[in-house]
Write a structure and sequence with these properties.
By secondary structure, the chain is an alpha+beta fold. The chain has three domains: 28-139, no CATH class; 152-339, no CATH class; 351-405, no CATH class. Helices cover 35% and strands 13% of the residues. It has eleven helices and eleven strands. The protein has helices at residues 28-35, 38-56, 62-89, 150-154, 159-168, 171-183, 188-191, 222-243, 351-362, 374-381, 392-405; strands at 92-97, 106-107, 118-120, 125-127, 135-143, 204-205, 248-253, 259-261, 272-274, 280-283, 295-305. The strands form two sheets. Strands 6-9-10-11-7-8 form a six-stranded antiparallel β-sheet, with no helix packed on it. A five-stranded antiparallel β-sheet has the order 2-1-5-4-3, with helices on one face. The chain is elongated, with a radius of gyration of 28 Å.
């Protein structure tokens, strides 16, 4: 029976604690426990502890020990099978030495983790069960976004795919979250659908250090708190690779649909967000109906590339229809000048602003009437705008903006 090489991740009822993934990777045994189904892991731990207790006892309990031994083997077969499946699917990356005297770690091919691959958890060794199969010693396991060659792996994916597979569906995040969602099903919005918060803003701020990402409160299960911390760490690791310039991003500009590089400084900018669909969004400074138009798409169909790789020059290479967007003002002056953003030369007005202007004209209101507030004017034109679905406050603000833009000349 393989002994546990490391304790299970720290989860307790006192405070939200998470043992971060070691910089040098985890052994096979530690990785197995981190991604294990929490129910099976508890049963395996309890059976193992009971087996040890009976083994130390002087009483005759051979039958109990035999039964426990069989249960433990069944649990271990399930735990080992789950670990092989995750490694074979690329959910985690494993590295090992081809021989005990080798100094360097090599990436182990995913197809090495077949159902017949032999895992020795005591020594963290993998042996391929086939003629000429290799043996890897001192195996270390990493989440993809923390792996030594993460750039090579991530560069094969779109931002949407990388976000979904290696952040939201990270095996450790999923294992902890499954347990928490049994007690708090509402968090499926975060851990399955990829929202940043259960309610409120769904997109993720790229500057997550400045904008705190805390999608739970003290009333939520401790498993949810730990899963959230794990999820945020994976997200920060993904954005960190882009922020450091180890990975580059390219997308279709929301203004004119051109395929262009996304400036590196975007990934530390407080006004930018990422959606689980892989779009990069910017705070809409002309929003009229919060929270529905809080953000506007800046780049869509974002791809990840290793630096210095040849890029397509136009959107015709993609089976994607370019997405148009209203012209917005932004703080892109803070971005890299060498990667300036293309802008439409003609400023387009907001459809809602056009509707407000038309409603005012139909009512014969061409200038701000003396003695009337914006809210009172908004109430007068509201019946003309029933199809715009604007709240009274949003309509009042739109009226104010209209008159500020159309002040009579002195």
């Amino acid at each position: 029976m393989a002994a546990a090489a490391a304790a299970a991740p720290a989860i307790n009822k006192g405070a939200a604690t998470y043992t971060i993934w070691p910089t040098g990777g985890c052994s096979l045994a530690a990785a197995r426990e981190r991604i294990a189904d929490r129910g099976i892991l508890r049963e395996w731990t309890e059976a193992t502890d009971e087996y040890k207790r009976l083994s130390r006892s002087s009483s005759k309990s051979d039958d109990n020990r035999v039964n426990l031994r069989q249960k433990i083997q069944e649990y271990e077969e399930k735990l080992n099978s789950d670990l092989r499946t995750v490694l074979r699917s690329g959910g985690l990356m494993a590295y090992g030495r081809p021989s005990p005297v080798s100094a360097s770690l090599f990436a182990i091919r995913k197809d090495a983790f077949t159902a017949s691959a032999i895992l020795d958890l005591d020594s963290s060794t993998v042996r391929e069960e086939r003629p000429g199969g290799r043996t890897f010693c001192s195996v270390q396991v990493f989440p993809v976004v923390l792996a030594p060659d993460r750039v090579r792996i991530l560069a094969q994916h779109s931002l949407a795919d990388a976000f979904k597979r290696f952040v939201i569906e990270d095996p450790e995040v999923a294992a902890i979250a499954r347990e928490g969602m049994k007690l708090a099903p509402k968090f499926e919005a975060v851990f399955r659908r990829g929202r940043c918060f259960v309610s409120g803003v769904a997109e993720w701020p790229v500057d997550s250090e400045r904008w705190s990402i805390t999608c739970y409160d003290r009333r939520d299960p401790i498993e949810i708190a730990v899963a959230s911390e794990t999820l945020v760490r994976r997200y920060r690791a993904l954005v960190g690779v882009l922020r450091q310039g180890d990975l580059e991003a390219y997308g279709l500009a929301g203004v004119d649909g051109r395929f262009e590089g996304i400036p590196r400084s975007i990934w530390g900018h407080e006004d930018f967000y990422i959606s689980v669909q892989g779009d990069v969004l910017h705070i809409n400074v002309q929003c009229e109906n919060l929270p529905f138009d809080f953000l506007t798409r800046r780049w869509v169909a974002v791809e990840l590339r290793a630096p210095n790789t040849v890029q397509p020059r136009n959107a015709d290479l993609f089976h994607v229809k370019p997405t148009t967007s209203v012209h917005i003002r932004s703080n892109t002056g803070k971005c890299d000048a060498s990667a300036s953003l293309r802008r439409s030369s003609k400023v387009r007005r907001s459809p809602k602003a056009d509707a407000v202007a038309a409603a005012l004209e139909r009512k014969g209101i061409t200038q701000r009437p003396a003695g009337l507030t914006d809210k009172e004017i908004a109430k007068k034109i509201a019946p003309e705008l029933s199809d715009q679905h604007m709240s009274p406050d949003a309509l009042s603000k739109a009226v104010g903006r209209h008159f500020n833009k159309h002040k009579p000349l002195a």
